[in-house]
Amino acid sequence: MTDFSTTYSAFIPEVWSQKLNTMLEKNCVMMQCVNKNWEGEISKQGDKVKIITPADVSVSTLTGDSITYSSLTPTAQELEIDQKKFFAFKIDDVAKAQANGDIMEAHLNNARKAIEVVQDSYLLSLHTDVPSENIVGSAQSPVLLDKTTIYEKFVDLALALKNSDAVYGGNRPWVVINPNIEAYLLQSPEFISAHNVADTTLREGSIGRIAGMDVLVSTNLTEVDDKYYVLAGTNDAITFASQLAKIESLRDKDSFSDLVRGLYLYGAKTVQPKALAKMIVSAGSADEPTPTETPTEEPSTTP
């Protein structure tokens, strides 16, 4: 007979936490596009991480023996860990599930998917931080994409980042699109698929490269008011911090089941807005005929 008073005592939260954290790091699209430079010890919702940004240093021409010193005043920002999510489910025997790697993996994978949806949507919503000079298209005149124009528009998007001095050294930019836009991109001869990228700098999960940007696809980039917001940038733009604060098991007093619940805390801050760019795309692009399509001619009725 099963000892229902002790089955959940075999629960090892560290094992579940480690596996879930690994899944989130590996699979979440936007985790490839942010930095965690300021991720400190997060113990509760509302914790804040102070971010110090150094001031710019100017260079002057020396015309004599006199040197003027400028005062540098670093700016301080706060990354607030203000997003609080939880998951909770029943399981017949948590000890058996823990011992069965496949079942445990399946439960954690479902938890990961749920967290990923809200986390990716949250990070993608930071498109509102993009400065006006880094926006391609507008709400009143969104870009209409097809397979013949998509490369030109993505070049414009990459150019916005370069003109704002966001691309330098080896910090390769990224762009996140949705599956509808991916369908056009795959038809563009300028798109370099992941199979044809020779170097090893391509981000994990990237489908390839366009206009020098690594391309990632997220179904969480959804339609808003008949428009899509394609987000691009470098990893300098957004800083992110998170913690699976708690995961635990207890007996369900109303059934012969164990309860598993977890608490996930996270927050993000756009610390360098100029390192973000976006393209406002008409959601009707997918319905537009491409310029390469030739209308079918009606048969001649002339004898």
Question: What does it look like?
Answer:
With 303 residues, this protein is of the alpha+beta class. The protein has a single domain (7-54, 76-287), classed as Alpha-Beta Complex (phage-related protein like fold), CATH 3.90.1690. It is built from 5 helices and 12 strands. Helix 1 (13-27) crosses helix 3. The N and C termini lie far apart (93 Å).
Quick tags:
303 residues; alpha+beta; phage-related protein like fold; seven-stranded mixed β-sheet; three-stranded antiparallel β-sheet; globular; disordered N terminus; disordered C terminus
CATH topology descriptor: phage-related protein like fold
- Compute the gyration radius: what is it? 25 Å
How much helix is in the residues? 10-25%
Q: Tell me the series of helices and strands, N- to C-terminal.
A: HEEEHHEHEHEEEEEEE
Strand order of the largest sheet: 4-12-9-5-8-7-6
The helix/strand class is: alpha+beta
Distance between the termini: 93 Å
Outline the biggest β-sheet: 7 strands, mixed
Mean pLDDT: 81
Question: What number of structural domains do the residues give?
Answer: 1
The unreliable regions are 1-8, 288-303
Instruction: Give the total of beta strands.
Output: 12
Question: What is the CATH first-level class name?
Answer: Alpha Beta
Global shape: globular
Task: State the helix count.
Answer: 5
**Strand residues, percent:** 25-35%
Which CATH architecture is right?
Alpha-Beta Complex
